[in-house]
Here is the input.
Amino acid sequence: MFYIQGGLTYKMLGSAQKLLLAFLTLIVGVVLIGTIASNSLNVTTLSSVSDESHSLTDCYTGDNEVNESDSDCNITVTHAPSGWVSSEGLGISSVTVKNGTGTALTEDTDYVLFETQGLVQFLNTSDTDDFTSNLTYIDYKYYPEDYLNLGWGRTLVNLVAGFFAIALLLVSVALFYSVAKENNLIR
Here is the structure.
């Protein structure tokens, strides 16, 4: 079917072509929506680390007590803040420090946490003395380098997948409606 508008001739899509286009739109949308949503989450979610282990062997005195004045008792986590994270004054969060047996230590009693530096300084207490295997485990969350640091930007990025899904649904519905109308299935 052809129609003329302003001297130009256009070919309209047939019902079969519209149905095919509607199904292809749905299939492509289903394939892409997962990727779009997961990429959005990657830049709006903090990364987590569980059981990052550090040895305190050089931190202990001869009687297996923490030597608070020794720099070996200061542990910097692997993903310590750097770059823009450090310049924004952000740091690690949800920190749990455990001894070698997995028992959680108490912040400001057994250790001091410096979030913006990603540093854990151990103190000399009965809970930090004589660690099993001189190991400590640290769980924490950190800001990855590709984290979107603007609050409104994170909100907007998280909405993109939803709007994309709605747009694809509307295109498919419009094509199905057009086919139904052409074939007198609806008035």
